[in-house]
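Homework-ish question, so no full write-ups if that breaks the rules, but can someone show me the predicted structure for this set?
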Amino acid sequence: GAVVSQHPSRVICKSGTSVKIECRSLDFQATTMFWYRQFPKQSLMLMATSNEGSKATYEQGVEKDKFLINHASLTLSTLTVTSAHPEDSSFYICSATPLPGHSTDTQYFGPGTRLTVL
Amino acid sequence: DAKTTQPPSMDCAEGRAANLPCNHSTISGNEYVYWYRQIHSQGPQYIIHGLKNNETNEMASLIITEDRKSSTLILPHATLRDTAVYYCIVRVGGDSSYKLIFGSGTRLLVRP
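A: Not a homework solution, just the prediction itself:
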């Protein structure tokens, strides 16, 4: 149980285009989803926290107009990288925590999406 | 910023126990210690977490010192598949709205 999926697993796009990444909790409902970014040979950096039906909370230094997050349901959150540039190339990883009463003390991570901007 | 300090790398022989240390000297009384690992180009995998008491599950054991300023993750019989980056994390925030701030982790190499 507690499986989180991401789609696509890899994406290559041209500079200036927008890219949408989906994060789904497959066998549980998630009250909160998180988005991380990881550059090569570096650790994960938390970008934002999203709760279903409300605006995401972004970490300091993360542009909310650049990285649009939508958490429309208890099983789906999307991250849209708008007007992507080569410096946005990274490994994007989401995670989710189950609803209260269902192991809320554990974050389950997706497999990640590798974005390459040409 | 991460509230943990870990050695950048360690190695151990296959079949032996791997003991991964972590310092978290500024941890608060209600903050949990979590361990995750990340195998190359994959999402992190949850291993174990604890508050005060030692914990054990099918993957590992977590030993937390009495003053809670450090902990050790123990993989009792390391295999080649345990080669990964191991992250020790202090959970920030309450039960319903917490964050995991990743530090640099320990790269564990299990040798044949």
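Now go work out the reasoning yourself. Hint: The longest strand of chain A covers residues 30-38.
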